[in-house]
Amino acid sequence: MFKPNWKKFGIAAGLSLSLVAAGCGSDEGSSDEGSSEGNAEASKEIELSYVEWDTEVASTNVIATVLEEQGFDVTVTPLDNAVMWESVATAETDGMVAAWLPGTHGELYSEYKDQLVDLGPNLEGAAIGLVVPEYMDVNSIADLDAQAESTITGIEPGAGVVAAAESAVKEYENLSDWEVQTSSSGAMATALGEAIEAEEEIVVTGWSPHWKFQKYDLKYLEDPKGVFGEAEQIKTMVRKGLEEDMPKAYKILDQFHWEPADIESVMLAIQNGADAEEAAATWVEENPDKVAEWTKGIK
Amino acid sequence: MLNNIIDFAPEIPIADWTAEFTEKLTETFSFIFTPIEENFDVFMEFVSESLYAIPPLIIMIIVALLAFFITGKKLGLAVFSLVGLWLIYNQGLWEHLMNTFTLVLISSILSVIIGVPFGILMSKSKTAEAIITPILDFMQTMPAFVYLIPAVAFFGIGMVPGVFASLIFATPPTVRFTNLGIRQVSKELVEASEAFGSTGSQKLFKVELPMAKATIMAGINQTVMLALSMVVIASMIGAPGLGREVLSALQRAQVGTGFVAGVGIVILAIIIDRFTQNVNSKGKKA
């Protein structure tokens, strides 16, 4: 007889507590539609999506810091690759600075390109290809025969660099009995670290900028058949209508552009244990000239 | 030769149909989906922020006290809750915990609200059972990754599509166990209640549901656990919480961070599991 009363009491207490808490809460409007009250940027809330790769963690946090300094309330949301693209295309999020083109995100770009605004590259000189440790005695994809148990360690299935590696296996006769083992970015990095630790052979799908080049002695294998395409660019994509809703934010995102050395310094700081936001804030503080270029013409 | 027999038809464009169907669905029902998404999002954010606004110590004490009384005045779960929650707080994951708890709580409540009526319907009609059972199988076995993209198309990103994905995955046990529980109520009791002239609804609420309560609660317990197992996948579509920490640790190869967030999920799971088990039994003699 006694216990059920306690249960009821507990439930009642819990409910009333949450009600009290509910009373204290403030009612927040939804921020999905940028309310277009003229050009006053009434809605100063902006949501950026990104994919949790080391480059994107660095760049998204840096641009978020800059937007915050300009008085925006920035939310950054990490999403799965495809979901990130979809969210900008459907105006769920306002934009992203993480579009790897033409290779890595090629398929997603062709899927959603009509529903996005392409603000051009924010970083050039990115590359994808097959990467091996410096101590391996091979310099070109054409020279591979049976190293690393004839396996290429890849990242997420569906990533452009994995697709490129799969077509490399088809294109190069010497890779006819090779296979591409898909995993995840993190698992690939771990496998690479383990192999280097043990001085074993390993071939991974690599891309730069990435901290692995800072941390280990690595090299890209030459790609005489050009399967991995030319250098990649990382582009900025925003939702349709952002220019009308938030011209200031649009302009900053449009003017956002930096060099591999910049992004790699932020990435290395994060890799060495700094919090992503801290690392971004530090970089912004130390590079006022760059930031001034991005915020040029913003009152 | 043999292949000619089965090659009579070209490849059926199921993939294209699905894509078109999803698009149509999104367009047709956006007038329903969009308000759901917006209001629900505000509501869930409000719930998790309210929880976060309560001082952690108060929550820890309330949970420990509830655990103490629910388990029949034993100290085990109370101490575990206190230590476990403190550990999560100590690791700086308190806000993530509140977000995850909100996701699990809302998903579970909705699963039960939807699941129990369907379970009752199944128990009352052979036809309903024949129709619903394969649907439940489908819901439980279809890999969650398949409906992540439609979930985003319907409900945007964040908690709401996460709840939607959880619902698909976590509702079936409640339905199944409700059905099972009611079907297991002894025939004699049901006949006796009929003999005393009880109406259909009296029979259901006064005899069948009380008799089936233990089984139904076991189903609800399963549902809550499955909802909890969805938190990492829900984070792929923007749901905040411990799942996001796990996911980002995976993508950045940070074993330590991932483990800490994972332990947070385990602690939450154990607490929720023992709570849902014990609310049902009157202070089980463990």
From TrEMBL, chain A:
One of its GO terms (molecular function) is amine transmembrane transporter activity. InterPro entries: ABC_Gly_betaine_transp_sub-bd. It holds the Pfam family OpuAC. It comes from the Bacteria. It is found in: Cell membrane. This is Glycine/betaine ABC transporter substrate-binding protein. PROSITE patterns: PROKAR_LIPOPROTEIN. One of its GO terms (biological process) is glycine betaine transport. PANTHER family: GLYCINE BETAINE/PROLINE BETAINE TRANSPORT SYSTEM PERMEASE PROTEIN PROW, GLYCINE BETAINE_PROLINE BETAINE TRANSPORT SYSTEM PERMEASE PROTEIN PROW. The keyword Translocase does not apply. The keyword Cell membrane applies. Keywords: Cell membrane, Membrane, Transport. One of its GO terms (cellular component) is ATP-binding cassette (ABC) transporter complex. Gene3D superfamilies: Dipeptide-binding Protein, Domain 3, Glycine betaine-binding periplasmic protein, domain 2. Residues 44-286 form the ABC-type glycine betaine transport system substrate-binding domain. It comes from Virgibacillus necropolis. SUPFAM superfamilies: Periplasmic binding protein-like II.
Automatic annotation (TrEMBL), chain B:
Pfam families: BPD_transp_1. This is Glycine/betaine ABC transporter. It is a multi-pass membrane protein. The chain crosses the membrane at residues 51-70, 77-94, 100-123, 144-170, 224-243, 255-272. PROSITE patterns: ABC_TM1. InterPro entries: MetI-like (IPR000515), MetI-like_sf (IPR035906). PANTHER family: GLYCINE BETAINE/PROLINE BETAINE TRANSPORT SYSTEM PERMEASE PROTEIN PROW (PTHR47737), GLYCINE BETAINE_PROLINE BETAINE TRANSPORT SYSTEM PERMEASE PROTEIN PROW (PTHR47737:SF1). Residues 97-276 form the ABC transmembrane type-1 domain. Belongs to the binding-protein-dependent transport system permease family. CysTW subfamily. GO terms for molecular function: amine transmembrane transporter activity; carnitine transmembrane transporter activity. It comes from the Bacteria. Coiled coil: none annotated. Its main location: membrane. One of its GO terms (biological process) is choline transport. GO terms for cellular component: ATP-binding cassette (ABC) transporter complex. Signal peptide: none annotated.
